[in-house]
Write a structure and sequence with these properties.
Helix content: 10-25%
Strand content: 35-45%
Radius of gyration: 23 Å
Distance between the termini: 49 Å
Number of helices: 10
Largest sheet: 10 strands, mixed
């Protein structure tokens, strides 16, 4: 079934007839190819097309969202009807803001997005390049996955928005093994083949794995800490996600009450910038149809803004930052302003530290105050007197988000786009040195 403007208008009219005062319809059509590889060889290839529809309705301040991947006129009409029915039976929100009135003008380069078609043979070559990079660096085995996708997003609202955009890109996640307990991981993420570097991702993963051979048990304690781009991106993404005004209003975020305050080190500046054409997270409009813009979340350590849609903006007596999620505002494309030093110079400035190249299973003990722990994954190294002394294992990073970002001392001069299953929002991050980080004994 064709998900075109005519269908959108028909479904919006249905929502209004059923009682919606506001409605928005988003359809996404995606073509996706995936290659998995293990033991230096391709093991699985998949390709497919998907369609999905999300319906938002507001009935006199009562809101609901429904989605479906069953694409037929009957199913879509039922989805609209269920959304209206759910809204009518829901509790009214304490703040009501109608959807923004369009139409709006959008940047053409962002609407166009990545139009590049990459053939299957080239995708296989990318995997081979990643494997070769890992092996040449000293790994024995290389595994991972490559995903290439192109999507068409169409948005229509009762506010007069009718917009269509192309999105997508290519990403590879490479895990290299020099031994069962000596592993490395890195990624390459890009919106086009010009910026895609699978060999470099494999090489970095392989270098980490080789350096991690024969790890000793690490000693729990408080250390200076070098966060690799994979780990720092993971923590930066947390700052971006919890800067959502929805979570702040619910008093769930560790950034609650800190607007305008120095909540991080002066070296930390963070943007959410979906206007960076040619990047994976670029987007011309948000879920309400408002043209996106660059927002400074942190500047020189000061929390400058929360991320808003029109409803949270009204509640906070400000303007939308064009970050809808109609219910929960969110970042699109996080960018950390880099420093100036190479990673070698960062290491040289550390007397007694731990270098965390990657992490997973980040869990909060308290969302509101920011206590969390995460498990270092892959190469973990002890630094003494300005040089890497040995690989270690068996430690867990257990600290507080605000302590981490207030303790930032230096940032590397080179950033890397990071996105994988632990970092869902594309995040541009350098190496980072933190003054004091607590490590406990891992139970794994």
């Amino acid at each position: 079934m064709k998900l075109d403007a005519t269908l959108h208008r028909r479904l919006l009219r249905l929502a209004v007839r059923l009682g919606a005062s506001d409605a928005a319809l988003t359809t996404v059509e995606t073509s996706r190819k995936m290659i998995r590889f293990a033991n230096n060889k391709i093991t699985v290839t998949k390709a497919g097309n998907t369609q999905s529809v999300e319906v938002y309705v507001n009935v006199q301040g009562r809101r609901a969202v429904r989605s479906t991947s069953e694409i037929s006129l009957k199913s879509l009409a039922q989805t609209v009807a269920k959304a209206v029915e759910t809204a009518k039976s829901s509790e009214a929100a304490d703040t009501y803001a109608p959807l923004p009135k369009g139409p709006f003008r959008y940047r053409k380069d962002l609407l166009k997005g990545p139009a590049e078609k990459i053939e299957d043979e080239k995708l296989v070559e990318y995997v081979e390049a990643a494997v070769n990079g890992g092996l040449e660096a000293g790994a024995k085995r290389v595994a991972g996955s490559l995903v290439y996708s192109l999507s068409k997003v169409r948005l229509s609202t009762t506010g007069g928005v009718e917009a269509t955009a192309q999105t997508g890109g290519i990403e590879i996640s490479v895990r290299a093994l020099a031994a069962d307990d000596a592993t490395g991981h890195f990624v390459s993420v890009a919106a086009s083949s010009r910026e895609f570097k699978p060999y470099d991702a494999g090489l970095k993963a392989g270098e980490i794995a080789k350096a991690a051979l024969n790890p000793a048990d690490g000693e729990p304690g408080v250390y200076e800490c070098l966060l690799g781009p994979m780990t720092f991106a993971h923590l930066v993404e947390q700052v971006g996600l919890w800067s959502s005004a929805f979570y702040v209003d619910a008093e769930m975020s560790f950034l609650t009450g800190l607007l305008g305050q120095e909540a991080a080190s002066k070296v930390f500046t963070l943007y959410d910038d979906p206007t960076l054409a040619g990047t994976y997270g670029a987007a011309p409009f948000d879920a309400e149809g408002v043209p996106t813009r660059r927002n400074t979340v942190f500047e020189d350590g000061v929390l400058k803004t929360y991320l808003h849609n029109t409803t949270t903006a009204k509640k906070f007596n400000t303007s939308t930052t064009a970050n809808a999620g109609i219910i929960v505002p969110h970042p699109f494309n996080l960018v950390v302003k880099t420093g100036s030093k190479t990673v070698d110079k960062l290491i040289a400035g550390i007397d007694r530290g731990i270098w965390v190249t990657n992490d997973w299973y980040l869990r909060y003990q308290n969302y509101r105050t920011g206590e969390f722990s995460t498990i270092p994954r892959d190469g973990l190294f002890l630094i003494k007197n300005g040089s890497v002394e040995k690989p270690v294992k068996g430690l867990r990073l257990s600290d507080n988000m605000l302590n981490i970002f207030k303790g930032l001392r230096e940032l590397g001069g080179e950033g890397y786009w990071i996105k994988w299953w632990e970092v869902e929002v594309p995040t541009y991050a350098p190496y980072a040195v933190v003054e004091k980080v607590n490590f406990t004994k891992s139970v794994l």
